[in-house]
Hints:
Layout: E1 6-12, H1 19-29, H2 47-52, E2 59-70, E3 76-88, H3 96-103, E4 108-114, H4 121-132, E5 136-142, H5 151-162, E6 170-171, H6 180-190, E7 203-212, E8 216-225, E9 227-229, E10 233-236, E11 241-244, E12 247-251, E13 255-257, E14 260-262, E15 266-270, E16 284-287, H7 288-293, E17 309-314, H8 321-334, E18 339-345, E19 349-356, H9 359-373, E20 378-379, E21 386-390, E22 396-399, E23 411-426, H10 430-437, E24 443-449, E25 454-462, H11 463-467, H12 470-477, E26 483-494, E27 496-503, E28 506-507, E29 513-516, H13 520-534, E30 542-548, E31 551-558, H14 574-594, H15 603-608
Parallel strand pairs: 1-3, 1-4, 4-5, 5-6
Antiparallel strand pairs: 2-3, 7-8, 7-16, 8-15, 9-14, 10-11, 10-16, 12-13, 12-15, 17-19, 17-20, 18-19, 21-22, 21-23, 23-25, 23-26, 24-25, 27-28, 27-29, 27-30, 30-31
Helix pairs in contact: 8-9
Amino acid sequence: xxxxxxRNFCIIAHIDHGKSTLADRFLDVTKTxxxxxxxxxxxDQMDLExxxxxxxxxxxxxxxxxxxxxxxNDSIVDEGSYTLNLIDxxxxxxxxxxxxxxxxxxxxxxLLVDATKGVQAQTLANLxxxxxxxxxxxxxxNKIDLPASDVEKTKKEIIHILxxxxxxxxxxxxxxxxxxxEILKRVIERVPAPQGDxxxxxxxxxxDSVYDTYxxxxxxxxxxxxxxxxxxxxxxxxxxxxxxxxxxxxxxxQFAPTAQIEAGDIxxxxxxxxxxxxxxxxxxxTVVKKKEDVMIxxxxxxxxxxxxxxxxLYPTEGDDYALMRDxxxxxxxNDASFSxxxxxxxxxxxxxxxxFLGLLHLEIIQARLEREFHQNPTITTPSVxxxxxxxxxxxxxxxxxxxxxxxxxxxxxxFEPYVTLxxxxxxxxxxxxxxxxxSIRAEYKNTEYIDSERxxxxxxxxxxxxxxxxxxxxxxxxxxxxxxxxEYIGYRxxxxxxxxxxxAGDKVEAFSRxxxxxxxxxxxxxxxxxLKQVIPRHNFSVALQAAIGGKVIARETISAFRKDVIAKLYxxxxxxKNKLLDKQKKGKKKLKDMGRVTIPSKAxxxxxxx
Length: 610
């Protein structure tokens, strides 16, 4: 294939700005999918994506488009059949990594901005990522058909952040199809054709992968150099693992097998590998026989993703441990930003410590475990990774879970991760947002006016304060208009303590977490109050206590179910009533000594959402 007629691009935007709907219109215009098979948000393949209305996984698709450019007298100046490789990307901050992988596989990006909402925090974050990659940016104002749209104001915001000219911004509506063909034409005119040499040895960059029972690991690749066909001997460069291709092809958007894929193409390679660890996102696929003859440089992969939040997952039944491990293995293949490793806990048994990009990411993994693998694990309270400076030891040690915390007397300093936090909001909500920021240990840095009505605030704050409830609170105080984005910047000295929760006198490690010392009493009281609502009543009273070390700082009691044992009495001496009540009290005390408190698995996440 002539690379001159290939364009690789993706769509980047804030969440809910219409990326998937615009991708649907691209498929309509290029007739990639038959009309009878077309449905809304076609590229959102997972049920979870369709239910929540958000894109979770990046999704590539190959489209063919007949391009014609005419002069003023309608004479055709340029004409050709172009192959357009599109990657639809997520918009939520938790799936920032998916966007970075998409950008590494393309030469251009359509920057989509909702005309009713304007530039948002994730719009800026994704734009900066694309500029760092050196991509051609095509600005588009979407949803111009809505009555609430303010096109001129949105265009001014784009010009402010991008520095482009007014005429370079395209107008479109993903819902009605207005302006969609102009976007495709602009992609062909502005986005450079891929540069690669099909005669060189194969170099293919893995930007995503899925597992197929029959084909093994299927790698989503961008072919940079060379070509590959079925039954070729291939090698994973970093993993140093050989295999033979089972199938190669394109995305239509389902797998469409073809004879070969070559330099400039975006497609898939069914590797036949059964072990998911050999096919890593960011690795380079090359040809075995060529590697020995010619020195092949591996492609620059992506920066290694660091999980932001850790939580432990424990199977409810010990026999399900092996099943859960298989399930997590398959989820890790589908989601390169998810990580896990085995661990054990005295109270909960054997389980897995898992790393996530945020709380939404955790919820998605939990939902997929339930739906796809019928696993309903117990989830510990999510936490970030702290670093401890112990007395008499020069190096710091990492603490992934509060249960790993040593004796406080041996700790010299505790360091916690900090992030830069950017918030875009209407200026009218500036006061209420600043008041919210004062409640989370945030350090103010800068204010920038995008225009006369919209403000960009910059802060530095502890990651734990940002991931827990902050997004919901920000939406509440700004009537839903504010948006946020955060990026990790490093560790800082912090004054935090371990908060333990005791249920019926037993410490529940899954509820333990690190909290700022000044907020320990407030956090402890809020936690036991929430637990009182989510733990069901028993036949005996259940004491809920929050403690720091050996000191109880808050308490609530779940009252017992009460049977009216004196209902059958119809008179007589009061001693008869007291005798029955004392007998009931002794029975409940005996039941309390031998009974166990049942804690539902959803309680662990509900506590965090207090």
